[in-house]
Amino acid sequence: MTRVSSLGMRAQAVIGRFLVRSNRTYLYERLVDGVNGVDATTYPVLSGLARVGPASATRLAAAIGLDRTATTRYASRLEAAGLLRRVPDARDGRATTLELTARGEAAVAAARRALAALFEDVLADWGEPEAERFVAGLERFVTALEQRHHAG
Amino acid sequence: MTRVSSLGMRAQAVIGRFLVRSNRTYLYERLVDGVNGVDATTYPVLSGLARVGPASATRLAAAIGLDRTATTRYASRLEAAGLLRRVPDARDGRATTLELTARGEAAVAAARRALAALFEDVLADWGEPEAERFVAGLERFVTALEQRHHAG
DNA sequence: TATTGTTATACTCTATAACTATA
DNA sequence: TATAGTTATAGAGTATAACAATA
């Protein structure tokens, strides 16, 4: 036996399937479908802002794993679509705070509902405790992965 | 209560975290780290070919969710690196079959082992039946998602 | 005429470099 | 001098269009 058990191999196989381009594209399409002014490129900015709250472009960029120059450009698109606004930081003349407008909040909520409905549908024929255990497992798994990532 | 339960919302939240760019990049780096001649761009072609077996560029492209023109170009890179070869199709003069070389097979195996080791590590402090249940759940979940996708 | 592989081209995403204003 | 935001630029990925060869 090698160090890598069959469980690890099964995990990499299924996660590999999950991460293939066609799947990601499918999920992003479902996510932004019918949400005006948002696409797969700008959604991470919108969603990240909803997650961390009002923030500077630099801080938001770090949170979503994107360069600050890309972040500010996508923020401009969302601003043009009326989904976020820029407000000057009163305590630092250099800084600008990005924050969602009411329509931006609504757009995020709609996108999340659409994705949640899809997953709800997928889990519909699972036993309730089974589905609950699985989602809890996902939360634990992703959190552990994030920690490993941030640890370097 | 809306149609979207909190479990669906929890699922979309955690999968959203999993799919963020920084996480995907991290996984792809781990995946191809130290595997010569393969990067995040060409890996899907290599891996897809391992999954479906020898195939034409057109068929492989459909399997990995990539355009056939991109597929054939990335295949050329992998060919130059000695990881796959092109063989003419005896029954159809237009077609070319892509197939992994021995080194290509070894590269895929190495990449998969690297990713499996990471996941193994993440799951190491889970109870064994818990980890097993979770991976089985993932397999069921991803399969259901793929079916929904292919259904349209 | 349709399809396969391939190349030419154009578009988008994203990072690095450069610029301006403020600390 | 360093940092925030922004814009200019360049490199990479990927699709559409075009082409040659074969069905």
Descriptors:
homodimer; 152 residues; mainly alpha; Arc Repressor Mutant, subunit A; 3-stranded antiparallel β-sheet; 7 helices; globular; DNA-binding
Topology:
Two copies of one chain form a homodimer.
Chain A: H1 6-19, H2 21-32, H3 43-52, E1 55-56, H4 57-64, H5 68-80, E2 84-88, E3 96-100, H6 102-123, H7 128-151
Antiparallel strand pairs in A: 1-3, 2-3
The structure holds a DNA duplex (23 and 23 nucleotides).
Describe this protein's structure.
Two copies of one chain form a homodimer. Chain A has a three-stranded antiparallel beta sheet with strand order 1-3-2. Chain A is globular, with a radius of gyration of 18 Å. In chain A, helix 2 packs across helix 6, helix 3 packs across helix 4 and helix 4 (57-64) packs across helix 5 (68-80). The first copy, chain A, contains seven helices and three strands. The mean pLDDT of chain A is 94. Chain A has one domain (3-151): Orthogonal Bundle (Arc Repressor Mutant, subunit A), CATH 1.10.10. With 152 residues, chain A is mainly alpha-helical. Chains A and B meet through helix 1, helix 2, helix 6 and helix 7 of A and helix 1, helix 2, helix 3, helix 6 and helix 7 of B. Chain B binds a DNA duplex (23 and 23 nucleotides) through helix 5.
